Amino acid sequence: MTQVACGIDIGGSGVKGALVDLGTGEFIGERVRIETPQPSTPEAVAQVCRAIIDRLGVGPDVPVGITFPAPIVRGTVVFMANLDKSWEGVNVDELMTRVLGRPSHALNDADAAGLAEVAYGAAKDVPGTTIVTTLGTGIGSAVIVDGTLVPNTELGHLEIDGHDAESRASTHCKEILDLSWKKWAKRLQRYYSHVEMLFSPDLFVVGGGVSRKHEKFLPLLDLRTPIVPARLLNTAGIVGAAYEAARTAR
Ligand code: BGC
User: Stretch 95-106: mean pLDDT, rounded?
Assistant: First the structure.
């Protein structure tokens, strides 16, 4: 596998990119961030990715991986919850390969974070089933069985008590409703115990920006399954995208 790849992480508020050393899972040089254009249409976001590649000076032979907050099946966006709906049905691999002028590979953002945690972080060498969740604007999920990802699991959209789970338990929800840690933890408890009942996992890994404050809410959860914070925090999406791009470019 090549030693350096570029990862780009597309989110609702920012598009971030960096070169990644695949030996260590660490960034090489700076991370570039550009606000997500509004409306976040495919062409506008692709141009931002192009600007990031140019700013980073990514060479033509360096594989590029791109994360999306949506399920991606063979390059195509299945549905879009938190970016412009015009993404639905778009083949991101084709779009980005054209605009970036090099082979590019897209995958779901939580799947990328999950792969990064398996390769370099909290899920490394963990046997059995690990579920990585990312708590942010939505809830993303990556299900990994003995190191192999089951892609596009979308467990943030489980219907629990008649609600789309992420609309009750995401970080965004905590923020807009100004929920205390305790109140939010109650919602997380409902969420994780449901996922636990469905999958009987061996480990939960909790990512997303809020995992930096894990000591405020993880100790409030009562689960059979060990639950730990992600180790890569906000680098996981970029690192996982770069890792997967290098793997598929082989
Ligand atoms: C999307 C997922 C994504 C998650 C986190 C959800 O709304 O449907 O694909 O992984 O948000 O961004």
Answer: 94
40 ligand 1 Cβ < 6 A? no
Q: Whose CA is nearest to atom 6 of ligand 1?
A: 138
Question: Is 225 touching ligand 1 by the criterion CB < 6 Å?
Answer: no
Residue with CA nearest ligand 1 atom 10? 140
The 3-state secondary structure of 158-171 reads CEECCEECHHHHCH
Cβ-based neighbour number of residue 11 at 10 Å? 20
244 ligand 1 Cβ < 6 A: no
- pLDDT tens string 182-222: 999 999 999 999 999 999 999 999 999 999 999 999 999 99
pTM value is: 0.96
Q: Which domains does the chain have, with CATH numbers?
A: 4-111+235-249 (3.30.420.40), 126-230 (3.30.420.40)
4: helix, strand or coil:
strand
Whose CA is closest to 106, among 119, 117, 116, 92?
Answer: 92
Which residue has its alpha carbon closest to ligand 1 atom 4?
Answer: 140
CA of 79 to the centre of ligand 1 (A): 10
Q: What is the pLDDT of residues 156-183, one digit of tens each?
A: 999 999 999 999 999 999 999 999 999 9
